[in-house]
Amino acid sequence: MNYFYILFSENLNQYYVGHTSESLEERLRKHLSNHSGFTGKTKDWIVVYFEEFETKSLAYKRELEVKKWKSKVRIIKLIKSSAG
Hints:
The structure is a single chain. The protein has a single domain (2-82), classed as GIY-YIG endonuclease, CATH 3.40.1440.10. The chain is built from three helices and three strands. The chain has helices spanning 24-32, 56-69, 72-82; strands at residues 2-9, 14-20, 46-53. It has a three-stranded antiparallel β-sheet with strand order 2-1-3, sandwiched between helices. The longest helix is centred in the last third of the chain and has 14 residues, at 56-69. It is globular.
């Protein structure tokens, strides 16, 4: 399975949008590991939203769609809409 996902860091008060063909648990473990990327700035990332896709390209397409929003408000609305 392929995933589009959103992570949240309370320390940074920021969201991270990504996609993966790995399990969400494995991908989160990598985000929490020591590295120099954006998510390496803190270790409190949690998965707050995800969608499943049949192909990696569809998950990537969704990632790009959400990143084009450039809107924290729209991301929060998306997350809240799934909490129903």
